[in-house]
Amino acid sequence: QVHFVESGGGLVEPGGSLRLSCAASGLAMREYAMAWYRQAPGKIRETVAVINPETGPVDYRDSVKGRFTISRDDDKNTLHLQMSNLNSADTAVYYCNSVPSRSWGQGTQVTVSS
Known about the structure:
Elements: E1 3-7, E2 10-12, E3 18-25, E4 34-39, E5 46-52, E6 56-60, E7 68-73, E8 78-83, E9 92-98, E10 108-112
């Protein structure tokens, strides 16, 4: 069974940075397209960034382009999301998952507020 455990979220001021991490068990990330998703209160879950196993990062949501960077550590089977210049619209619970998605983890809360 596949499990994802996200970490690294927190409260940050506008303009700040955070680095999210995701550890996977039951799945070798290097073999799958992986993504970061997020869900803000009252909104549907949306894809933030996708990384292809062979070519690396392939897509970012327009609103995060130039601010977020997705990466993968194959040795540690972890996925990361470096986020900078955060704003209130980035406030959400962030999840990692494969593409297409499997079972969801608990996610990690990111709150951008002064």
